[in-house]
Amino acid sequence: MLYSATIIRILIESQKLSDDIDQYKINVSKNEPIKHIDRLHRWLDEDEYNWDNTAHEKVYGKNVCNWLIHSYVFRFQFDDNCVVSGFFVSSDYDRNKALYTISLADWINFVDSVITDDVVELVATFDDKRSDYIYRIKKRGKRRVLKP
Questions:
Q1: CA 27: distance to chain centroid?
Q2: Are 48 and 37 in contact (CB under 8 A)?
């Protein structure tokens, strides 16, 4: 996940992906910590997070990438059959504000959207101050990926 998050963030920052990917949102669950989260208290124990008060939000995929890249807390979530079903993550910045839970299926859908993204139309204007072009619109097309 760290590799895919790093690659996706580089692609977004270099503006090689469409506006749709820039605006892509992922469902997350959010729990606040009860204790101060530090190097000795960054596990997923029952007494460290408020598991009874879970909020549900939609956040930008690029934010999840940043949480993974700067993760202070990272753990896999397992279903009843011991299969990975998602992951818990909190960045060094957010560690004492929230722990996020992301389903593996939602993360894979985001990664698949990035893989199949292709900018098919681009509108840019020249900025004299920057002495460079600024992209105004990056319209998404869908790249066909051959599957066996």
A1: 10
A2: yes
